[in-house]
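One-letter codes give the sequence; backbone shape is given numerically. An example follows:

. . .
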Amino acid sequence: MPSNEDGYMLRRDHTESQRLDAQHQFFRTLSGGHLVHPSIPWKLFSNVADVAAGTGIWLRQLAQSTETSDTVRSFVGFDISAQQYPSKDECQKDGIELLTHDMTKPFPQEYHQKFELVNVRFVSYVMKATELDNVVGNIVQLLRPGGYLQWQECDAGDSWTTPETTLARSTINYTIEEKIARGLLPGIATPLIRTIQSLQTEIPRGQHNPNSFSSDQMRLKQIETVSTATHPDPIVAAGKKMGVISAATVLLESSIQRKRSKAAQDSTPSSEKEQLERDVQAMSNLMEAIKCGEDDAVNNWDFEMTWIVARKAIPLSTSEPWMAIKYPQA
């Protein structure tokens, strides 16, 4: 199956770039047409970043929708691979800059505390469970005090069919099993929210954190779940099908190969080999159902997207008038 050293499970080619752009249009439609959550005053911002930028389509569309003004704006995208980036001429035309960077590593110092908005989407299929804390910490470093973090994710467990079927349950179970086998989080929403909330910051002497009485670095502003079940738009219907086919297929292919490899090992007990062979057959049948477009396999699905908005603390001087109320001894 397609796989890259950086953990991306699909091919990095023109077809995959087209799929990513179509996926973007699907999720934008699901988000009510918004590129940025309505609670974020992004049109006032001068510096915006997109992490795990893919083809750069989110950043390009945001730059294109920005009204002309005297303010010099910076739109910067980061991705572990530049293979799906548009040409430099196209980037220059759109007014964006796309750079190569691994989000599991600290970003260059020049980008620390630079951005008023950082966008992240759908990294749960490439980010290891053990990398979550580092990734969130690295991304938050990009934010200026008072800056906004927007993060969207979909978990396999937040999907279902109507009516529920054995085929659907098998798809979800095999998908989650393979994510765990690859070291990925079976569900990212709750661990992600906890990680964002747990970030701490050092407040300089003579200042206090208006976010809370402690040293919380981030304040959660919005946690919203958006369901495909309430969106009859044809783009959403097509996007659901595309999402099921791409996610389930790649994880099933990976699981089939992994189980076949283990079954072929001499050290694997015969009883375990028999179970592995049964699993392979069941997953192969499921793959065939997906490829044939059976309703239970691809057409009756719905799922939820988690949309998170958080804001970075702005340490304030204790001389602020309201500080006397919050910190009477300061």
About this structure: Strands lie at 47-51, 74-79, 97-100, 115-121, 143-161, 207-208, 218-227, 301-312, 316-317. The first helix runs from residue 14 to 30.
